[in-house]
Amino acid sequence: MMAKYPAGVNFDRLEEGMDAMRRIGPSGHYVGDAFTLKYFQDAFFAPELLNYEPYEQWSANGRKDPAGSCRREGGGTLKAI
Known about the structure:
Elements: H1 14-24, H2 34-39, H3 55-60, H4 66-80
């Protein structure tokens, strides 16, 4: 996510997105629309420090908490500086 911040907000798709909103309307379904299908893959990201395992798997793997993940990741980054 932090890598996307320096790029700023991109409005290149704004008009195309607004056209989709006008076409579909407030009670419509956007998931199957051509605009959504064209752009959804690069619109979302999964934070690297969050754990997406089911509870049972997370528990079996040692119940590593997000704060510990941040300390481990941040510590390596700080040492590299």
